[in-house]
């Protein structure tokens, strides 16, 4: 029998169970389980409140029994993933969620000695479970899942430091009772886990971590409290990375005499910072980053190093592709791999990437070793030049656009993302002697940048370009930079500096005989003269330019636009309109659609000033269509705002609101511009009477302003919100919003006085007259102390309204009289008119009808003089009532009849008809009296208060009494008495009862 042959034979005398198998395994007796192997939690754990709450929600038993719940904490090396996971696990165990115990395993996914393989991991976990270990992977995996499945009490499995999903998948249980928590530097998207991407600490938690760490080791340490500024700097230099902060605090703890500022100074050097952030043999930031770097592929390592050559705060896919000399598709794929490995972070918007500060320093070290770094920089700068050139073509809408961008919106998205990098790019170009890029990038980007608002970075870029041009002795480029710099200064409002630059640029064009650019300088000079308010000089310069433009027809519209503006400032509107129409005619034959749309906006403004509102609306609408076709958001924003303003002036608030809604939809993200748009939309809805919709938008504006810490916008939004809620009858909500507005305005130092008066009005109408009185008395004392007569008058007027609400008509009349005297003393005719007309009712209700008549006549005369249409109607109504009060009923008919058409369909119509009915009844003209009173009653029943309806029934009852129909008089009188009593107007109810008793 040869070696390896099978021989089956039973021999001997002892027989029992016979097993036949190729391989037989023998398992030793089951070991005791070890289910409490969690590392100890960090004693100085700080922050991470939101992340702990999310993990608690996911780990809590019973949250999701449909599948095994897996949570994955991912993030940069040293960001505190393990610390967070261990803390969450201890919290969960303490809460009693995992009575079955905890399995903990470090998978060493990034260890240079090699990561833990699934077979080894399963062996460890089986031993921890007290189970035997089968010899192969399949057996171990099967037994592991069987062991977990037979355990009915929930267990937590914490798998730390995984580098890929294939390390984790064999370790997942089938049982839905258990929970799995994984940490990794990679985003394990194919794991089906709920992800938590861990970021660095914020400033507050950074300071707390440093203090807690020091106080844990040195309880009496006061260095953090004594020097918070140094702690803030330490946090910045450590990039708020917990690992780096832990190393720094260990160094401080080792030397209790070391000031934090001394350590800050040691860490300031960018080239040495990573070398300094080392503590002992096992704690070093560089070593932690090395583990991540060595897990990258060669292509990923190269891209990682190349990104450090980019001088900006973030890198786009286009720039990364240029650096690496690969296609954008290849670059995006590699960048996404780096992001999933958490060695780069996502930038804004999507498609941009950035480094953590310490990772950037680490990447710079690798970039220094690149053999082709100079070539990569050259490719990067050439790419920026080409991209900026293409962007400029799109914005001026000239021929020859490239496919670099898909449209105007794409251009501005790119620009907004690159703004913070362009200055550094120009600096890099000058430093590496790439003169073309150093000079031309500022020139080419100016039109785009000034469209969105220039800043000091653009000035700096021009200064660099100017130095390069002069160093090279290139007068033409020097002229171009100076001309562009003038536009930049003008955009910033630095007009004197703009004038200097355009004069120097023009002198160069004359010296070298460059007539086209002399013309371009004259155009800029015209704009500068207008900015200096020298409009006639601007016309002179631009007329000279217009004559020269005969040789350069394509430039003619560039002259006509500022020339039209200059004539507009001089109020020479027909001439301005003529120039704009001529420019539009030229542009109509070209493809300069953005400029064409801008000119339509200019034309609309001129037409509006000429009083042709319909034409202005049409021109703006045409401009809006062009901006929408080009997806030019800035143009749409401006035009929608102008259209809304026109409709607001026409009191067409529903239409205004529609345009402002479209404007708000254009603006996305957490920006002050969007908050402003929401507030404008909300206020237009208030004016349109759509108060519930208004409140919704104004609450959104309040929340956004609060997030942005923009207190003035928040205060203004609370003001409008209080108005919306007041109109809805939600007095308590309106009061709360107004109080918040008052608080914010007080902090800002202005606006709180009118807001306080508005709060008093809300309190008054909510029946809180004592609070309203106190608030206004406090204001009055404040203004008396400041000897502000105008403000005192306003306070007294509002106090009079409170007295009216209390039906203390004598006090109201006295306060109106005081307010009117003060307004007259300070010669505020508008306020005097309003006070006199408002005070008429108080005088009448107090029984002082001659004073009411005098106030009405004087107030109406002022209203006619000032052309205040709304006050004229009220003045006529008050005069009619006052004349009735003094018994001059025939005279009362004239102002009341004049007022009636002014209030047709208005809430005041029933009041006018009431007083007309009263006058006709007193004159015994019963048919006319009945007609007005019945029409007024119909209006009261549809819209008005029980008081108004009761008063009209009171007059109808008197009418029937005067006609001798006592039965109908009594019926109507009893109805009037009941309504007036129900409305709380006992004085008027008593008058009704008096004539009823006299029937």
TrEMBL record:
InterPro entries: P-loop_NTPase (IPR027417), TPR-like_helical_dom_sf (IPR011990), TPR_rpt (IPR019734). It comes from the Bacteria. The lineage of its organism: Bacteria, Bacillati, Actinomycetota, Actinomycetes, Pseudonocardiales. Transmembrane segments: none annotated. This is Tetratricopeptide repeat protein. It comes from Lentzea tibetensis.
């Amino acid at each position: 029998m040869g070696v390896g042959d099978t021989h089956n034979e039973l021999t001997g005398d002892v027989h029992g169970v016979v097993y036949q198998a190729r391989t037989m395994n023998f398992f030793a007796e089951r070991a005791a389980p070890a289910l409490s192997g969690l590392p100890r939690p960090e004693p100085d754990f700080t922050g991470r409140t939101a992340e702990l709450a999310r993990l608690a929600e996911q780990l809590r038993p019973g949250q999701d029994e449909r599948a095994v719940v897996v949570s994955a904490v991912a993030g940069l090396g040293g960001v505190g993933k393990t610390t967070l996971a261990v803390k969450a696990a201890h919290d969960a165990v303490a809460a009693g969620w995992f009575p079955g115990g905890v399995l903990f395993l470090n998978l060493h996914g990034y260890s240079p000695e090699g990561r833990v393989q699934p077979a080894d991991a399963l062996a460890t976990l089986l031993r921890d479970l007290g189970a035997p270990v089968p010899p192969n992977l399949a057996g171990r995996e099967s037994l592991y899942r069987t062991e977990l499945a037979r355990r009915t009490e929930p267990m937590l499995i914490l798998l730390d430091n995984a580098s890929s999903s294939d390390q984790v998948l064999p370790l997942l249980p089938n049982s839905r009772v258990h929970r799995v928590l994984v940490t990794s530097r990679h985003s394990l998207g194919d794991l089906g886990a709920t992800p938590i991407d861990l970021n660095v600490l914020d400033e507050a938690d950074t300071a707390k971590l440093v203090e807690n760490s020091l106080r844990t080791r040195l309880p009496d340490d006061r260095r953090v409290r004594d020097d918070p500024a140094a702690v803030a700097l330490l946090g910045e230099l450590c990039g708020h990375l917990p690992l780096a902060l832990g190393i720094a605090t260990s160094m401080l703890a080792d030397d209790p005499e070391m000031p934090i500022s001394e350590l800050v100074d040691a860490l300031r050097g960018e080239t040495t910072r990573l070398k300094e952030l080392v503590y002992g043999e096992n704690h070093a930031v560089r070593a932690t980053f090395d583990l991540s770097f060595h897990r990258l592929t060669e292509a990923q390592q190269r891209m990682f190093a190349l990104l450090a050559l980019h001088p900006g705060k973030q890198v786009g896919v286009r720039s990364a592709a240029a650096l690496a000399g690969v296609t954008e598709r290849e670059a995006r794929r590699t960048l996404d791999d780096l992001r999933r490995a958490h060695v780069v972070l996502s930038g804004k918007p999507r498609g941009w990437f950035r480094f953590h500060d310490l990772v950037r320093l680490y990447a710079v070290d690798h970039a220094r070793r690149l053999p082709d770094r100079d070539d990569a920089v050259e490719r990067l700068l050439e790419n920026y030049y080409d991209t900026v050139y293409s962007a400029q073509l799109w914005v001026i809408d000239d021929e020859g656009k490239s496919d670099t961008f898909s449209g105007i919106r794409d251009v501005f998205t790119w620009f907004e993302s690159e703004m913070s990098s362009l200055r550094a790019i120009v600096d890099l170009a000058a430093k590496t002697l790439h003169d073309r890029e150093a000079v031309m990038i500022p020139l080419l980007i100016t039109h785009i940048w000034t469209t969105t608002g220039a800043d000091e970075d653009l000035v700096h870029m021009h200064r660099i370009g100017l130095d390069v041009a002069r160093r090279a002795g290139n007068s033409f480029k020097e002229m171009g930079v100076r001309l562009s710099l003038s536009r930049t200064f003008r955009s910033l409002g630095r007009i004197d500096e703009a004038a200097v630059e355009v004069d120097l640029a023009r002198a160069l064009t004359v010296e070298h005989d460059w007539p086209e650019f002399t013309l371009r300088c004259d155009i800029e000079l015209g704009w500068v003269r207008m900015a200096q308010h020298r409009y006639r000089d601007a016309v002179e310069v631009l007329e000279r330019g217009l004559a020269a433009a005969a040789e350069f027809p394509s430039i003619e519209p560039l002259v006509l636009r500022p020339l039209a503006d200059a004539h507009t400032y001089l109020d020479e509107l027909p001439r301005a309109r003529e120039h704009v129409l001529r420019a539009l005619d030229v542009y109509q034959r070209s493809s300069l659609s953005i400029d064409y749309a801008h000119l339509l906006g200019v034309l609309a403004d001129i037409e509006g000033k000429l009083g042709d509102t319909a034409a202005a609306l049409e021109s703006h609408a045409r401009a809006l269509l062009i901006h929408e076709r080009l997806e030019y958001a800035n143009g749409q924003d401006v035009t929608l705002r102008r259209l809304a303003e026109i409709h607001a002036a026409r009191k067409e608030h529903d239409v205004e609101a529609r345009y402002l809604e479209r404007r708000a939809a254009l603006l996305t993200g957490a920006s002050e511009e969007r908050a402003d748009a929401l507030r404008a939309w909300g206020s237009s809805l208030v004016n349109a009477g759509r108060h519930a919709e208004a409140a919704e938008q104004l609450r959104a504006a309040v929340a956004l302003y609060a997030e942005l810490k923009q207190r003035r916008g928040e205060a203004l939004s609370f003001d409008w919100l209080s108005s919306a809620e007041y109109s809805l009858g939600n007095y308590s909500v309106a009061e709360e919003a107004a109080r918040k507005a008052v608080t914010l305005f007080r902090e800002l130092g202005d606006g709180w006085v009118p807001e306080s008066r508005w709060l008093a009005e809300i309190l008054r109408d909510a029946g809180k007259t004592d609070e309203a009185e106190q608030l206004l008395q406090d204001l009055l004392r404040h203004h008396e102390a400041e000897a502000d007569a105008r403000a005192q008058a306003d306070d007294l007027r509002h106090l009079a309204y409170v007295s009216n609400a209390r039906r203390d008509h004598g006090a109201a009349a006295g306060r109106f009289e005081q307010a009117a005297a003060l307004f007259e003393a300070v010669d505020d005719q508008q306020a005097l008119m309003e006070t006199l007309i408002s005070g008429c009712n108080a005088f009448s209700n107090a029984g002082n009808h001659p004073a009411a008549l005098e106030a009405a006549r004087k107030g109406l005369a002022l209203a006619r003089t000032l052309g205040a249409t709304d006050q004229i109607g009220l003045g006529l109504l008050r005069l009619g009532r006052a004349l009735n009060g003094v018994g001059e009923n025939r005279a009362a008919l004239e102002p009341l009849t004049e007022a009636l058409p002014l209030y047709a369909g208005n809430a005041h119509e029933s009041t006018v008809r009431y007083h007309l009915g009263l006058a006709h009844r007193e004159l015994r003209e019963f048919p006319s009296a009945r007609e007005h009173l019945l029409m007024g009653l119909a209006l009261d029943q549809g819209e008005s208060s029980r008081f108004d309806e009761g008063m009209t029934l009171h007059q109808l009852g008197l009418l029937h009494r005067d006609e001798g129909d006592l039965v109908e008089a009594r019926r109507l009188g009893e109805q009037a008495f009941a309504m007036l009593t129900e409305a709380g107007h006992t004085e008027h109810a008593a008058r009704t009862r008096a004539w009823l008793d006299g029937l």
